[in-house]
Specification:
The protein is α+β, with helices and mostly antiparallel strands. 32% of the residues lie in helices and 28% in strands. The protein has a five-stranded mixed beta sheet with strand order 1-2-3-4-5. The N and C termini lie far apart (44 Å).
């Protein structure tokens, strides 16, 4: 079965909450993903194999030229097969179609080969202030 990718695809809170828990190593938190994403996001991409959510990425934005990759998630059984890069590519296409000029991402150092290599991001100087 092939994986399908859908910009602003339909999902349930439980599907994304479970995938987030698996991807980031914590128990499901009961987050209200649909409400949050519909309120704050430019869009998101759902990856499905046989109807099962196997990947997800969220794009927040500033309402103008800048979009931001958040919460790139791939089910464990699908990792290393290009699903994450395909999610980000589909998200970039969605941001471009919405008129964005820039796609930003922050990541942990161990994800540098993924974002800079597989996804084609370029390194930039950035800052972070813990609140």
């Amino acid at each position: 079965m092939t994986i399908t990718y859908e910009w602003r695809g339909d999902f349930t809170d439980g599907e994304v909450d479970g995938l987030h828990a698996e991807s980031f190593g914590h128990p499901p938190l009961g987050e209200k993903w649909r409400a949050r994403l519909h309120r704050h996001s430019l869009g998101w991409v759902c990856a499905r194999r046989g109807g099962v959510l196997v990947g997800f990425v969220n794009l927040a934005w500033d309402g103008g030229a800048h979009a931001f990759v958040l919460d790139t998630m791939v089910a464990g059984a699908e990792r290393g097969a290009g699903v994450g890069a395909a999610l980000v590519a589909e998200a970039a296409q969605g941001a471009r179609a919405a008129g964005c000029a820039w796609l930003h991402v922050d990541y942990e150092r161990e994800l540098e080969p993924f974002y800079l290599g597989a996804c084609g991001f370029k390194p930039t100087a950035a800052g972070l202030l813990a609140l």
